Amino acid sequence: MDYTFDKDILDGLTAPKKHLSSKYFYDDAGSRIFQEIMHMQSYYLTDSEFEILSLQAKQIVDALEFNVPFNIIEFGAGDGFKTFKLLEYLEENNIAFHYIPIDISKEAIDMLTEKLKERLPNVSIKPKIGDYFKMLKELKQDTTPSLLLFLGSNIGNYSYDEATELLQLFNNNMKPKDKLLIGIDLKKNPITIHNAYFDKDGITKRFNLNLLLRINRELEADFKIDDFDFYCHYNPTNGEVKSYIVSLKKQQVYLKKLDKMISFSQNELIWTELSKKYNLIDIEDLATKTGYSVATNFLDCKHYFTDSLWVK
Ligand code: AVI
């Protein structure tokens, strides 16, 4: 039994302001819907970061100043599509490295490994499945200099307190010469951000409602998906996109596994996700607060996104 999942869902649905964590979006179906999101025209984040890693791989690698074989440790590697460009550059230029992708999803890691072996057969790949921190501690024993990758604006899904805690934890487990390349979505025209998250094809809605299907399956619940909708809102003042599931009517949902009835009033919200946007000053502040300094921001040509290189 996944006790944490059960407890988090129950705590979230019985709180005065209901909430569910977006980290639970990514079951197999959710991961597939996220792939669809990444291919949406309006979800500019993927293209922007792909452009950075494709066109500025040399600049990024030069800025690392590693003269010996090094590790590239990627947290939440997913399908590794963007990282591929960086790895390709290294391979083409005979720069020695080991690629260590870490993800909690075995399916994601297996797919990534298979694709990589096909497209870059000479790359040394040591995939790891599991919890970031356990892996980080293990890797600290290794004396090879490491570049940590935390791409895709994953940091945006953490609250300020959670983000600082996570970044400090990375920092505590980094050796003095290690570096962190962190993908961060930048504040921009609010309409562009709104359209990325409130897509007219309803893919992001499906992504959110899939969590209710997951709860139905794993907690034997009886959410009727058609009685719920999706809403999201970007606040340009604080850079926060907040996503919600909306109960379309007064209703009750039974979680059989936990023997718990949950009541919803009409239009009641379940907050599901934060996707925070930063500007370059916010990024400096976050880096300083967590014990880093920003070496370089690698921006795409539209200045929508940065892969920000941080040193200890
Ligand atoms: C994974 N994460 C960075 C995505 C984001 O942009 O916050 C998840 C997502 N949610 C809705 N669309 C994409």
UniProtKB/TrEMBL annotation:
InterPro entries: EgtD_Methyltrsf_superfamily, MeTrfase_dom, MeTrfase_EgtD-like, SAM-dependent_MTases_sf. It comes from the Bacteria. SUPFAM superfamilies: S-adenosyl-L-methionine-dependent methyltransferases. Gene3D superfamilies: Vaccinia Virus protein VP39 (3.40.50.150). Transmembrane segments: none annotated. Residues 6-310 form the Histidine-specific methyltransferase SAM-dependent domain. One of its GO terms (biological process) is methylation. Keywords: Methyltransferase, Transferase. GO terms for molecular function: methyltransferase activity. Pfam families: Methyltransf_33. This is Dimethylhistidine N-methyltransferase. It comes from Cellulophaga fucicola.
